[in-house]
Predict the structure.
Amino acid sequence: MLIAGNWKLNKTLKETKDFFKEFNKLVSKTQNMILVCPSFPCIPAAREYALKKIFIGAQNVFFEEKGEFTGEVSVSQLKSFCDFIVLGHSDRRNKFSESNELINKKVKAAMKSNFNVILCVGETLNERNSSKTNSVLEEQLTKSLSGVALKKLFIAYEPVWAIGTGKNASKEDIIQAHSFIKQTLTKLFGEKGKKIQILYGGSVKPENAKEILSLPNVDGVLVGGASLDPKKFAEIANHKK
Ligand code: PGA
């Protein structure tokens, strides 16, 4: 299982160091894959202070390699520090207007450089209430993965209404969405698509992680708020399926 933490715009350098001082001790025995995604300036420190078995990832990347792209970061700049890149998070889609087409370019650039990519997909509350969940998921997957030569890909199902709200999706919603995502990936990539691991994200915390991780087609979790606290994140990371 992959237990991934998305720190979003949180933690200074000192806070990053303090986090790993405590977190490393708490997860030294876990068999799960653990990933922490700090914001860009804290990535090198995270790589330095985290246990070697903890993977470090970025929360975004730009698709061009270099040039006049003020404020952007390229895949090769991340390569020395990171193993994973999260793309298409709903913060990027909704607060920074990232389209499926833009995300697709980023996925291709990251895959070309052999990164593990976690592609986030998920519907808003309005879309769910108007029975558009499946069509939104299908469109996000199809467009974001168009023309992609499959390498190391994970999908994170993150219903927008469950992110940062404290209200996780129900068992039934998660089972339904993950099964639909698996079907769509199989349509897109055949047998290989069936093997792509699918994470759930949206208000995962120590109290609900066990149940969520036990559901069919749930191969891990993407944790926001609870990943900022070393004790809470370790409790999630130490769960056994
Ligand atoms: P949350 O965030 O766990 O705070 O709901 C999840 C995410 O955005 O990845």
In short: The two ends are 8 Å apart (CA to CA). The chain has one domain: 2-237. The first helix runs from residue 13 to 26. The chain has a mean pLDDT of 97.
